[in-house]
Structures
1.
Amino acid sequence: MPAVVLTGLTDEAPTSSGALRGTALIINFWATWCEPCRREMPSLERLSHRLAARGVRVIGVSVDADRNLAREFVRAHQLTFSIYADGDKKTFQSALQVKALPQTVLVTADGTIAARIMGVRDWDGAEGERVLEQALSLRRRAGH
């Protein structure tokens, strides 16, 4: 995963992509003007809660030009996973070669990009579980 500085969108302190190493990541690139992105957010929120105990972190990266719109969306939808702004230069988006939204990049704990998922996904369903199992070597929990 490329080394970039990530600016917190709401209360998150700025961090670097390197500081996130050691944790499997589900990085979702989104924007408020992207209707499929907005639809995907509730299932990403639930996914972040389900995977927290398993050492997997969901982070969002807003590519909105207007950070206030993105902040308001996060507040209105009570999103609790970390969300960062990619800034005007779209450094992280460019470094990860994200060309369409929404796009989710799955990164292993050692920083290897394991998968890229184009388009909206239902992270509550069997398909989302299967993708995560394969890419991040996660096993289903009993009863799921």
2.
Amino acid sequence: MSPSVRDRLPGLGLRALWLVLAGAALLTGCGESLRQAPQAKAAVTPAQAPARAADTETLELGRKVYNYRCYFCHGYSGDARTLATTYLDPKPRDFQSTPAAALPREAMLVAVRDGRTGTAMKGFTGILTAREMEAVTDFVRNEFMVSRAANTRYHTPENGWPGHERNLVAFPFARGEIAIDTPWDQLNDEQQRGKRLFLGACITCHDHGRVQQPGAVWESRALSYPRDAYCTTCHQDTPRSAPQGAAHPQRPATHTFSEPDGSVPVRSPQQAPTRVGHSFLVHDTPPVLRNPTALEARGEQLYQKNCAFCHAADGTSKSWIGSFLEPHPRDLTSAQEMRGMTRERLAQSIADGLPGTSMPAWKHVLGKGDIDALIAYIARAFHPVPNAAGS
């Protein structure tokens, strides 16, 4: 693998980085083009696929294409033992365990060209040339399915990892042979040294090591792309009443509510939102507090910095992110959703989080004074929050 290609290879990083990279990979073809301006070439068909042994130049071209575009899911050694694989269903193909006779070259060319429906394997027409498709197919068949070779190991001196074997005690945790959350008293001295090394260094990239107790999933199932006017309680021209709660200064000018007599203003098509996102933008505008107390002002800063991402700047949870999460974050302006809420209960929810939802525990981030300030702000800006009875 040439240094110019190797330098551009993305590494296996943290889970959040994987979520970004995986989404971009599936949409854009697992990376930028090997050329500045890729040209769409004629599609490869079985009739065009030569039944010949690939030459060295072709195999090296295939290696470069594979190491730049395919390794992230299929692994440097073609065994699909990657971080990405742990998130995909069905799993990417393990070429090391696939006999060449069981997977014809022509079928592989079709998969590279057109992708495979129902999997994360996308087609590369318009991204790779016909020659590159043939080269990477021949490389995979020769390197993994026939020769069972290792291709490129990541932890090599050439990749900046001299003497990697000195970290041998941490390998069982990186490989998933020992669960990361194994109690310390169940590990011998060498395993304890390996766990400390893994947690102190290796976990930066090997963050998806095996655990015995995975715990609650922080991120809930995402909904599909919200259509415009997803905020049906505010933006659709149907007879709906305004959300209950503290009045927001921006609402009269941006929302359509029932008139005092119960009639619903009719909005013409020309007045409808013209761009997806307009329905969410209004909820990213915080309410204007007049003469807030020092505690409320502090709470406003904390809320807009930490809470608005999910609950929206105006407390409705109808922002872009809030609309994706299921169950939706609590609408702090809703009388129904805030029914029975007390300051004590709200403080506990903020401190400890809510199991089964995307609400995490904040007790290690926010102190008691911060939580008190948040509650003061919520009670002033969104919905009154009383003390518990008798307190």
3.
Amino acid sequence: MLPSFYVNSILILKNSDMTYFRKILPVFLLTVLAFVNGPAHAIITITITEGGEGGTPIAISPFKWQGKGKVPTEVSDIVTADLRRSGRFSPLAREQMPAEPYRDKDVVFKEWRLVKATALVIGYVTPVKPDLYRVEFRLYDVFRERQLAGYRYTVKADRLRTVGHQISDLVYEKLTGEKGAFSTRIAYVSQERSADKKRLYRLSVADSDGANPQTILSSVEPLMSPAWSPDGKQLAYVSFEKKRSMIYLQDLKQGKRIRVASYKGINSAPAWSPDGSRMAVTLSKDGNPEIYVINISKKSLQRLTFNRAIDTEPAWSPDGRHLVFTSDRAGGPQIYRKPVTGGQAQRLSFEGNYNARPSYSPDGQKITMITRRNGKYNVGVISLADKSMEVLTDTRLDESPTFAPNGQMVLYATERKGRGVLASVSADGRVRHLFTLTEGDIREPAWSPLNP
């Protein structure tokens, strides 16, 4: 796995401008590391690798199953895992709980204060009719002895996990004042070997905890750079299925797709505008990799950068007024910002000689990127207020960082024991998780907007 600036450029250029590209990049960077074999549809498992303790104590009582046989989904287990994964909460173990209430009248606040739980979640699941279930939950402030939230859902069995994530979002928001992101999804690319030993690439979408993976597209040629539309209904991505790079938009519900960029040379790094009407891309149609903006409905094209260097990896500011991008115009990859209406590009990164793959935080106050430190490629965050940088990871080869839609976590790709995996780190660097397939490698993550 190579750093993102070079990975995107190398793969995109492999069939079109490689001769030119060899002139400006060291030869050793032209070796692209392949994925290890493994099924892309395998379940992703998440492991908390650092900072899982020390959060606010909270109790999630096991939701009472009021039907026969086994409950289709343990909703309370999903809520517990979500809140623990956030790093903001430390759910009590079941054996630490003084009781397992599921009705309002069963709650005795004093006994929950004795185990130092600041909040309590209770609930139940009951069948309404075949394949239809009612889920009800309540959230309490233990010390003030009052209910903070309570909702009832009626859903089919295949929506019970979704309800669990929705409950987690409500609990998180009530207790922190910030939006939860458990109901969101992630997109990623993985690779396996087909029966005839050819590489098979898959573009997949899964819940934020890796469950319910769905393959959006399979190809024997590389797939890259998935990007969510602002409404979460479409993905843009780069495909080499016709032996050269092209950018597609695909409707996730209907499966329909359209090709939006297939110019001569490079077509890469799609990034949606906040209103979904435009897309920033990297094209070399005029001979050099530059940033362009495509009006999707009008199919018009605006060139934004004019420089002899490689300009790539654009990302929009949340207000839609600026684009940040990677450029080697200063001799090595650095982060720049430019108004969408035109004007001078402003350099944002100054620490280190390698900073690439920028992406804005949802509030527009920070930018995450890959930065090189002591020969390692790590996730860093720049504060736009004072241009200071904080390095959040200490692994060897990170790439493709993307903020969670609530700004509290950063999802990225990295390498572990020779395999490509996904990982996340909290915005303060305290909590870290590892996302791994049971077999094979994954990379190129993208986090969906809130509640797609």
